[in-house]
Amino acid sequence: MDRVFIVGVGMTKIGRFYDKSGRQLFSEAITSAINDAGGIKPQALVVGNMTSSVLMEQDSLGALLADYSGLRGIPAFKVEAACGSGGAAFYAGYSLVRSGMADIVAVGGLEKLTENLTSAVTKALALAADQEYEVFYGASFTGLNALVARAYMNKYGYTREDMAYWPLRMHEYASKNPYAQLPRKTTIERILNSPVIADPLHLFDCSPIGDGAAAVILVRGEEKAREIAKATGRDILVEVKGIGMATDSVDLGSRRDLLTLDSTVKASRTAYRMAGVEPRNIEYLEVHDAFHITGYLALEDLGFTGKGKAVKEWREGRFAKGDKPEVNLSGGLKARGHPVGATGVYQIAEATLQLRGEFPGEKASDPVIAATQNIGGVGTFTTVTILTRVK
Amino acid sequence: MRFSIPRFWRERVSHYRLEATKCRVCGKINYPPSNICRYCGSSDVEKVYLDNEYGRLITWTIIHTVPEGFDEQRPRIIGIVELVDSKVRILAPVTDVLPEELEENMLLEPVLRRINEDGEAGLIHYGIAYRPVIKTIGDKD
To answer: Could you give the residue numbers annotated as active site of A?
Structure first.
């Protein structure tokens, strides 16, 4: 069985880029990933993106981005799984390599949001939800997450202040991340007093709207990976040891349990089994905290703590730098930013840099096993990836 | 006009009468309706209607940043309502109530309301919203 390795990563800073088009941002990210991999040329490109049809008014994204990345002619296509598009694109790209369809594959993510009106972005992001039975009534995507947040807070007796320790810590980490959209610290008071978006979620409980692109280069076989590592002056490899994907209903009303991300439970079990690891083995973790509630649910449903306990343990200091696992040292979606369809690729790029010891922000404590969790919708899709450092 | 007329014509019964499907194999009610049971995969399903049931408020949100087209209805209250008999959960607007009056498990009744309109010349969309059941003196809890 051929093993799959990540040999190159590239990211743009996340932000508001009025001076750059989507294709420009993407070409920057993939060029730095290709350079990071010693200049090898990908044989196929898979792109994660959610809103290009609506907000960029652009389809044919795979071909467009291949062309403007100097890769005209190779197989290229877009994968859409709402906010989980990046993870799903990685799942597809991994499959191409693992199956032998291609030896070298680039997986990229791109989202361009900020040049549109907030109401138009709100509507585009709400396309992740059920149009005929949820959005029809005026529900926004933040509103749907707010329904889950209130049910969780009511059930376990948590206040808005209890919940606010997630964004607080994410801002602290992001303040050291040169790629972060919000690289500044904040306070509990500022979080609590920020404007309401969809009660009980306020602005600082939510990830920001931002543009960004990220890319990783995958190769098949240890020999090829060693060759690239040697050429780029590295003595370690990063291997994709496990990957799992699962789905749930799009609508919230028909969920088995409103407070469990069943897709995360299933995807993580698949990924753990494939990698031969358990949650207690994982030292570094990037989770999908589009809202504080989804960050807390991720910790519970990935198996790191019991139901209803994540908020209490987080506030007491668990999952911080120095703990096991260390979580979201990038600043998470909350403060690194959430360029929707690119986010899953950012997480994998960041975990790769942490395993290499090359992350330019808050560094993890020399991890060997890392995991990423990327969700689309309110847990409608989840992709979980397990990466390991190989000497 | 931005919306497809056939789409809203097609969905009128599920929006006005909460048309759902009941699976003859596993017994579960599917709302939104589905020709294939979303819980067991059987295609042996029959139509049922849920618009005559009271509901209990499970959770709610008060949306201030609304999607395009709902600007005049800000802030908008959206809830998940669990119907008292069938236990089906419906996402719907909660109406005729102030945000501070909302509480978990409050008893609600369905009411047909205007949801949105498609510009000046387009269709007016109606659907089911839920409002608190008003108790009068002498009512039992």
So the answer is: 83, 338
